[in-house]
Amino acid sequence: MSLRSLKLILLSSAVLSLSGCAVVTKFYDAYFMAKYDSVEYALVNKIRSISELGVEDCKEQSKSKDNFEGMYFIAVELKNFTQYIPNNPDANKLAGNLVDLTKQGRDLYIKGNVSEGFCKMKLQQINRTSETAQKAIGAKPR
Question: CB 64: neighbour CB atoms within 10 A?
Answer without folding.
Answer: 24
